[in-house]
Structures are given as C-alpha cells and as structure tokens.
C-alpha cells in the first residue's frame, strides 16, 4: 500500500540504532560519490584534453581559446562581467515576474468565462507562434532601446507558456471535485480560489520551469537587439561587443556565464516548486513511486 | 424506527422519469416516498438508473417528466438550503488541505466563522474517530480513513438528508463492514437524519437499511420495495441470523425479475 511506503524512509533507518550510524554515514558518502564522481571525472578529463589539444595543435586563440585563457579573460574583466551578469539577471527576473503575474492573471480571466476563452484564446495561440526576434524591433520602437524593451521581450517570451499551462491546469479540475463544490453551493469565485487554482498548481509550476529559462534567453536576445552600451550593457551586449572585437576567450566566458545563469535560475525555480508542492502533489514527493 | 406512517415526507417521487437526449430511458416512472429518519438503500446492477435518481435528487440532473420533491421543494431549491450532504464513491478530499480543512469545507463555503467551523469539525472528527488525525494530509490516511474523513465532511453541517453514492465501493471487505457499523451509529445519533444509500451489494443493503428499493435495468425502475423490520442497534451478529439470510434471498429474488 502506498500509505506505508510514504512514511519517511529515514524513520525505518533510524530504528537500526547507534552502532550502525557510522556505517550509515560512510555508505551515504559512497552514494554521493557514486552520483557526482563519474561526471566530475569526465569534466576534468574533458577540460584537460581541451587544454592539451590547444597547446599541442597551436590553434589560434581567437578560433579556440584554451580553458585557462577563458578563466584568465573572465578574471581580468571580472568587474565588467559581473555588471553584465547582474544586468541580465535583473532583466530576466523582472520579465519572468511579469510573465507569471500576467500569464496566470490572464489564464484565470480566460478560465472564468467560456465566452472570453473562446473569443481570445485562439489569438493567444497565434501570437505565441510569432517569432519573438521578428517583433523585437517593434518593441524597441515603442519602448526605446534599453532596459524597458529588454524586459518586455523577456516577458513576452515567457508569457505564453505561463498562460497556456495555467489555463490547461485550471480547466482540468477533477470532475467529482467540481460536482462537490457545485453541490455545496460554492460561488464561481470560491471554486476558483479553493479548487481550481490549487488544482492547477502543478501545471503552473511546469509553466514556471519553462518560462524561467526562456526569460534568460529573452533577456539576452533583447540585449542583442536593444542593448545599450556604456557601463551597463548586459551579457547579450557584452557578447556582441566581444565577438566584433574577436575577443574569443571573453566571448566564451560570457557564454558560460549565461549558461550558468540559466541553470541557476532553473534550479532556483525548481527548488521553489518542490517546496510549494511537496506536501501534497505526487510529482514532488520525497519517495518518488507516485 | 421502521414504521414511517405519520413521519414527515423527505423525498417524494411521482412517475419520475429521465430520458437522455440519445433516447436512453435511464429511469422510468418511479413512484417512491421517503420519510424522515429512514435509511433507504437503492440496490441494483449497474445501469439500473440508481445513480441517475441520485443525480436528480441532488439537482445535478433534471427530471424529464414526473414530479420530484425534496423536503417540500424542487431539488435545486432544497440543495440551496444546505440541508443535504453528499458522499461519493471517491473520497473527493482536496489533497492540498489537511483533514480538518477538508472537513470544514462545506461550512467555509457558507461563510461560517472560523471558531464555529473548528468546533463543528472537532465534533464530527470525534464521531468518526479521526480527531487525532485532523492535521494530517489526506495522502497520509488509509482508504478507510479517507472515507471516514469524507463522511465527517458530509456530517459537519448537520444535514437532514445524507446522500451516499456507493461510498464503500472501493474499500476492502473488512474495512467496509467496520464502516457500515459506524455509519449506522452515526445515523442513529440523529433521529431526524435520513440516509439514501446507493449500492450494488445486497448484503450491504440488507445490513444497513430500514427499507430497500430494488431497481432493475432497461428501463431503470423500482421493481420492489422491501422492508427490513429488524430493530437497531444491529451488529456483526445480525449478518449471521436466519432473518438476514431470508431478506437477502428475497432481495436477490427481486433483482432477478
């Protein structure tokens, strides 16, 4: 039965008492090593091979910089790089937050009336298929080059996954539960707040995971198109500058920073969603037999 | 308890029929009057229209013809008065709410103040034996406990009419028998409360009811009304009496029509 396996696994370990604790600790260390050991070794081997290859082949550094060159470029330009990363984070986070608020908000609006949904949703889908790069120049014309336009591009790219995921979630409430609320004379607002929104949370979380990485992409693309120079350009801007100057090592450093930023952002959202759903939803429970 | 003459009419059906748009006759001309304090089981095979009758009593579905009165009004008006409560085969507990928040849901939806909700919830959780689990989440409960929580939620608003649609259908036989006895105790504690119980299990129907409406399919109709004139309290020993066997036989006979 599921109920029995749900009780935390630590508990059953705990009963085997003091003597086996040290054994347990070493075995859990072993487990951690088994998990992170092979990929770290592979990483070190890969970097080593790369470094060796560049040194031996004498390849021009503007074609393929050595890993050590990249680290050097990053540390020499640390303050510039940090400003770029910081700018991009700000834009991505603001765009992401906007896409959450407006995406979920619009989804609730659409879900509360079949008429509104039927009349607006098709256009939402059509708008989703418009490549963001194609309309970015229009956004720049409307909002001016710089932060505002970039935030709006980051927002637009994350908005539709949020909207459609939330809408699907709001519309897939269990039939019996809906009957229950109906029979107990719940108002549409009560049903929305107490039933449909909580039931949609797993879908909303799936939307968050998609949108957060898209927001970083959106911010960088936005900076390509609408980035302003000076001391406050984001990563996208730094990348265009570095590539035009053939500073390939710094280009690599910027690209790596952008990837790390995306990964960090995703992990953060992932941790948040785990925390939010852990108490009840099967997708995020500790024992994952769901 | 079993003689209902003079008691108030809780549900009255006269030539009640339901025909679906595709022409299927789900329920045909059912005449049945249910009185205050009864425990009436609808028993029959699947497709005999017992769930359809239920849907009409709850107001989830409208009759095609005939009259249906629930506590002197139409089904939907009766539902608005909140004297009716429901238990389904599925426990339908909200997985994101604790047991106590699930149980207080009908009161919360009506805007009953928090303190009173809390008090009523503790009362019914005590009755179903879940008071120690009121802070638990539904997934931490066994199947039987989930059903108890679901019953507690139905009882929290002190309903006059309790509608149960195969509530123990998904439980194992042992849990099912325990819950049957508990349910009878809950029903006996409130002499006003009327229980309508849908099941396809003849033994369950005989054990629980004061009266059994035997339903036969195609078209769904009440073919027999069988009294179960056995006094309460009933316990496990009732299941092995000759009287029990005899009523089971006559219900089974009626089902074969």
For this entry, give a set of tags.
heterodimer, A: 290 residues, mainly alpha, MetI-like fold, 2 domains, 12 helices, 80% helix, flat, disordered N terminus, disordered C terminus, B: 257 residues, alpha/beta, Rossmann fold, six-stranded mixed sheet, three-stranded antiparallel sheet, 9 strands, globular, ABC_transporter-like_CS (chain B), ATP binding (chain B), transport (chain B), nucleotide-binding (chain B)
Description:
The complex is a heterodimer of chains A (290) and B (257). Chain A is built from 12 helices and no strands. By secondary structure, chain A is mainly α. Chain A folds into 2 domains: 41 residues; 218 residues, MetI-like fold (Orthogonal Bundle). The longest helix of chain A is centred in the last third of the chain and has 39 residues. The N terminus and C terminus of chain A are likely disordered. By secondary structure, chain B is an alpha/beta fold. Chain B is 35% helix and 24% strand. In chain B, the strands form 2 sheets. Chain B has a 6-stranded mixed beta sheet, with helices on both faces. Chain B has a 3-stranded antiparallel beta sheet with strand order 2-1-4, covered by helices on one side. In chain B, helix 5 packs across helix 6 and helix 8 packs across helix 9. Chain B is globular, with a radius of gyration of 18 Å. At the A-B interface, helix 1, helix 9 and helix 10 of A face helix 4 of B. Chain B: GO terms for molecular function: ATP binding.
What is shown here, in short?
The complex is a heterodimer of chains A (290) and B (257). Chain A has helices at 2-6, 9-14, 21-57, 67-76, 78-111, 114-129, 132-143, 147-171, 175-183, 188-226, 235-244, 248-277. Chain A is mostly helical.
CATH topology of the largest domain in chain B: Rossmann fold
Number of H/I helices of chain A: 12
**Most residues in contact, chain pair and counts:** A-B, 23 and 25 residues
N→C terminal distance of chain B: 29 Å
Give the averaged pLDDT of chain A, no decimals.
82
Strand content of chain B: 15-25%
Report the structural category of chain A: mainly alpha
CATH architecture of the largest domain in chain B: 3-Layer(aba) Sandwich
Looking at how many chains there are and whether they match, the oligomeric state comes to heterodimer
Q: Give start-end ranges of low-pLDDT stretches of chain B.
A: none
| Mean residue pLDDT of chain B | 86
> What CATH first level of the largest domain in chain A would be assigned?
Mainly Alpha
Q: Report the CATH superfamily of the largest domain in chain A.
A: MetI-like
């Amino acid at each position: 039965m599921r109920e029995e396996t749900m009780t935390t696994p630590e508990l059953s370990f705990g009963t085997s008492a003091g003597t086996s604790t040290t054994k347990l600790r070493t075995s859990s260390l072993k487990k951690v090593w088994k998990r992170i050991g092979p990929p770290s070794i592979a990483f070190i081997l890969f970097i080593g091979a790369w470094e060796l290859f560049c040194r031996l082949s004498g390849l021009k550094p503007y074609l393929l910089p050595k890993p050590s060159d990249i680290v050097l470029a990053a540390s020499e330009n640390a303050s510039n790089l940090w400003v770029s990363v910081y700018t991009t984070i700000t834009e991505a986070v603001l765009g992401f937050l906007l896409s959450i608020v407006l995406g979920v908000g619009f989804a609730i609006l659409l879900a509360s009336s079949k008429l509104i949904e039927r009349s607006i949703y098709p256009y939402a889908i059509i708008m989703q298929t418009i490549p963001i790069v194609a309309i970015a120049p229009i956004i720049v014309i409307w909002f001016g080059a710089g932060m505002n336009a970039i935030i709006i591009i980051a927002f637009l790219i994350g908005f539709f996954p949020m909207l459609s995921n939330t809408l699907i979630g709001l519309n897939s409430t269990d039939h019996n539960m809906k009957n229950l609320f109906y029979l107990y004379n719940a108002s549409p607002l009560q049903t929305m707040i107490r039933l449909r929104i909580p039931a949609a949370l797993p879908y909303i979380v799936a939307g968050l995971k998609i949108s957060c990485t898209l927001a970083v992409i959106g911010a960088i693309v936005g900076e390509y198109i609408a980035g302003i120079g000076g001391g406050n350009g984001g990563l996208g801007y730094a990348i265009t500058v570095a590539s035009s100057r053939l500073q390939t090592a710094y280009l690599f450093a910027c690209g790596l920073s952008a990837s790390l930023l995306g990964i960090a952002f995703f992990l953060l959202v992932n941790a948040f969603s785990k925390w939010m759903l852990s108490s009840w939803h099967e997708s995020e429970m500790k024992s994952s037999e769901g | 308890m079993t003689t209902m003459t003079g008691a108030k009419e809780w549900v009255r059906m006269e030539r009640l029929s339901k025909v679906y748009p595709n022409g299927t006759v789900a329920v045909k001309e059912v005449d049945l009057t249910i009185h205050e304090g009864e425990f009436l089981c609808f028993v029959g095979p699947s497709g005999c229209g017992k769930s359809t009758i239920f849907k009409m009593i709850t107001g989830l579905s409208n009759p095609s013809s005939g009259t249906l009165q629930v506590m002197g009004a139409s089904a939907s008006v009766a539902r608005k008065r909140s004297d009716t409560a429901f238990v389904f085969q599925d426990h339908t507990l909200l997985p994101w709410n604790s047991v106590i928040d699930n149980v207080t849901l009908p009161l919360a939806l009506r805007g009953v103040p928090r303190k009173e909700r809390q008090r009523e919830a503790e009362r019914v959780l005590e009755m179903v034996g879940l008071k120690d689990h009121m802070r638990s989440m539904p997934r931490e409960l066994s199947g039987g406990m989930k059903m108890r929580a679901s019953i507690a939620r139905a009882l929290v608003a002190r309903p006059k009419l309790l509608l149960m649609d195969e509530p123990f259908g998904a439980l194992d036989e042992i849990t099912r028998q325990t819950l049957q006895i508990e349910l009878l105790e809950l029903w006996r504690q409130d002499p006003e409360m009327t229980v309508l119980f849908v099941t396809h299990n003849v033994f369950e129907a005989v054990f629980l009811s004061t009266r059994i409406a035997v339903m036969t399919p195609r078209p769904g109709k009440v073919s027999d009304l069988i009294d179960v004139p056995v006094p309460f309290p009933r316990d496990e020993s009732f299941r092995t009496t000759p009287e029990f066997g005899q009523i089971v036989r006559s219900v089974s006979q009626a089902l074969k029509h």
